[in-house]
Specification:
about 325 residues; alpha+beta; Nuclear Transport Factor 2, Chain: A; eight-stranded mixed sheet; five-stranded antiparallel sheet; 5 helices
Length: about 325
């Protein structure tokens, strides 16, 4: 629902360089510079947050593992519920490990910066950062320049024994919306799935290794909430959008813009002069990670214009947390569909 949907552009098929972290250093106290909500100092059973500096150091190590095609590096670090958008489709843990094992890259340098760690709830955090790389990766036998700079994000969940695992990752090219068509592009995008029916918990695309389980009631519930959020965005209804967002909401928009606070998100979503006739949320895939945390991946479309420019489709990634008995959007990420 970013205001940057208004920019007509040539689709940027960003090559997502996956990054994971080593669990051995994940239980240190949170870095005081991290953008993590304060916990009650008097709480006797407060759960330790992951440390930003440790995560960023291991993210760099994971970029290096990706460039070497080391898929097994990620085998134990990805949650079994892991999903991400990859080249227009939804990829599972098995898909990602297989794909990384086949990567052939020549990377001269990598730089990760501007890391921010934000709390979703006690057991789930999102890290957002800027990734710059100089190098190429082969696609269909041809060398393709790695898109740079990228805005990357990874969502981590706490498992048994305080073991942290990644449940999602994405990246989008950081670009000036006015010059989006000139932004660096990755390999051509694979065709998007044509089936618009909702598939809960797993990828329904033919290239997935997963088998679709029974429907997830939480996924169905937050899909309905997501659609209502798009309608509130269409109406530019700040009050409804405010109740749709969690107290600690953040958002990465289509061109890598990062809204770090709820106030920033609301300003982003209600800005611009728009004439939006309809919105649609389709191709939904999702899962419940913990009783208070679930997420969906989907295709978001809107018919109309903003600032006299045609709206364009996005790959949407929405992460919901329960505040009391109500599901609210805690983090969102968009990339070109």
């Amino acid at each position: 629902m970013s205001r940057f949907l208004k920019i007509a552009m040539t689709a940027i098929a960003a090559l997502s360089i996956w990054a994971c972290v080593d669990n051995s250093n994940m239980n240190k106290p949170a870095n005081t510079n991290a953008n993590v909500a304060n916990t009650n100092a008097n709480a006797t059973a407060a759960k330790a947050a992951p440390a930003l500096d440790s995560i960023m150091a291991q993210e760099k190590a994971a970029h290096e593992a990706y460039s070497k095609g080391d898929g097994q590096f990620f085998q134990g670090l990805l949650s079994d519920k892991f999903m991400e958008h990859e080249m227009g489709k939804v990829a599972t843990k098995a898909d990602v490990v297989k794909a990384i094992s086949e990567v052939k890259c020549d990377v001269k340098s990598t730089n990760l910066s501007e890391g921010k760690l934000t709390k979703i709830d006690d057991d789930n955090y999102v890290v957002v950062y800027k990734a710059e790389a100089d190098g190429t990766c082969k696609d269909n036998g041809k060398d393709q320049k790695i898109p740079s700079p990228m805005r990357n994000a990874t969502v981590w969940t706490r498992g048994s024994g305080d073991k942290w695992q990644a449940v999602w990752h994405a990246g989008t090219v950081i670009a000036d919306p006015k010059n989006a068509a000139k932004a660096p592009a990755g390999p051509p995008a694979a065709p998007a799935a044509k089936d618009d029916k909702m598939a809960s918990n797993a990828n329904s695309n033919s290239n997935s290794t997963a088998t679709a389980p029974a429907a997830d009631a939480n996924v169905e519930a937050i899909t309905a909430i997501e659609k209502s959020g798009w309608e509130a965005w269409k109406a530019r209804d700040a009050d409804k959008l405010g109740s749709f967002l969690s107290s600690n909401a953040s958002f990465v928009g289509l061109f890598g813009n990062y809204d770090e606070t709820k106030a920033d998100v609301l300003k982003d979503w209600t800005g611009g002069k728009c004439d939006i006739k309809s919105t649609n949320v389709s191709d939904v895939h999702g899962t419940t990670v913990t009783p208070t945390f679930a997420f969906i991946l989907f295709k978001g479309t809107a018919e109309g214009t903003c600032d006299d420019m045609k709206l364009t489709p996005v790959n949407g990634n929405s992460f919901y947390v329960k505040e009391g008995d109500t599901w609210k959007l805690a983090f969102g990420f968009e990339s070109p569909a």
